[in-house]
Amino acid sequence: MSRLTTIELFREDLKFSAGHFTIFSATHREKLHGHNYGVHVSLTTSIETNGLRFDYRDYHKKIEKFCRDLNLCFLLPGRSDYLKIEEQGAYYHAHFNGEMIPFLKSDVVILPIVNTTVEDLSCWFIEQLIADKAALEKDGIVAITVKLSSNPGRSGSTSWSKTNER
After folding, report:
1. CA-to-CA distance for 19 and 36, rounded, in angstroms?
2. According to CATH, what is the number of the domain 3-165?
């Protein structure tokens, strides 16, 4: 008999602080600001006869690295239809609705997302976690949910399931 369990990872070190702005339309966006984001990941797998399946510390380390990669950076969405980003020397120039917003390249992470929202950022975390298909198979992971909070009481989550991947 196969028993499923869900391992949840959400310790204090699974967090990052980052600047961003949300784009609402071709002409409306938020002002530049930042959040202290918290990351909560659920991994669903089967339990083996020894009462466990994998060392969840490996996934904790992966998530912690993703958080470090984003920490203290300004996040820009690289796939927005409304934001165009160009490089000029040591700067990125973000063009939105006739405005040009300069950023030092060393302060910015351009992500392959449409918008810097908790919804899209949680999708990015999922994509990072499912990139290693061999590890998912080895560890028997059949589902992952990433919940990203930007403030107490405000979060967005995305789920991936092996059965929906086909």
Report:
1. 9
2. 3.30.479.10
